Amino acid sequence: MSPEEVERLNRAFTFSLKSLHLVDRNDPVSDIVARKVIEIDKSGAHDPHEIAARVAKEFGIPE
C-alpha cells in the first residue's frame, strides 16, 4: 500500500469516526468502521469524504 493510499484511508476513517461521533479508536465499533472504510475504498470510492458519507449511511446516519 502506498503512502498516499494509507493517508487517504486514514482521512476517510477519521471523517467517518467524526460523523458517527466516535472518539475512542480502540472501541470495537471503530474496528468495524475501519473495515467498512477499506471495503468501500476497494469498491472504487476513493474520496475520503465520499467514503465517510457512505460509511455513515450504512450505519443508518442520515446525510
From TrEMBL:
Superkingdom as given in the UniProt entry: Bacteria
Protein name in UniProt: Uncharacterized protein
Origin species: Bradyrhizobium septentrionale
